[in-house]
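Hi,

I'm pasting everything inline rather than attaching a file, because the server keeps stripping attachments. The sequence lines come first, and each chain or strand is labelled.
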Amino acid sequence: MEDCLFCRIIAGEIPSDKLYEDDGFIAFRDINPQSPVHVLVVPKKHKERLADCSDNDKTMLSGLLLVANKVARDEGIAESGYRVTINSGPEGGQLIYHLHLHLMGGHKLSDQMG
Ligand code: 5GP
Ligand code: ZN
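And the predicted assembly:
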């Protein structure tokens, strides 16, 4: 998906503040952080949104959460706490149509859930 921003970040065509990478995932800091730690965890395989996932994506989806846990430990927020969010579709507030997870923490997050 050459016109996809996150595919271009994965390909290294657009720079990012990368914290983690393996064969299946990349994690980098959000360009417009909403909390002291705000990291995006992104599967390398282009999939538009969570709503498009099925049983075939079980391994990828569990991997996404486990990479978030690893980055949270590396960022020192595993004990203080954090929130993970996936926005799916227009009313979910999704702006970039390449599946990704937001990992947020580093201060007390608001109780507001929308
Ligand atoms: P969404 O609303 O799709 O769940 O979130 C997209 C996120 O991507 C937003 O939090 C936005 O700040 C972030 N973002 C957009 N463009 C870039 C970029 O070029 N680099 C990085 N690191 N983050 C981006
Ligand atoms: Zn993509």
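The beta strands are 18-21, 25-29, 37-43, 82-85, 101-105.

If the labels don't parse on your end, tell me and I'll reformat.
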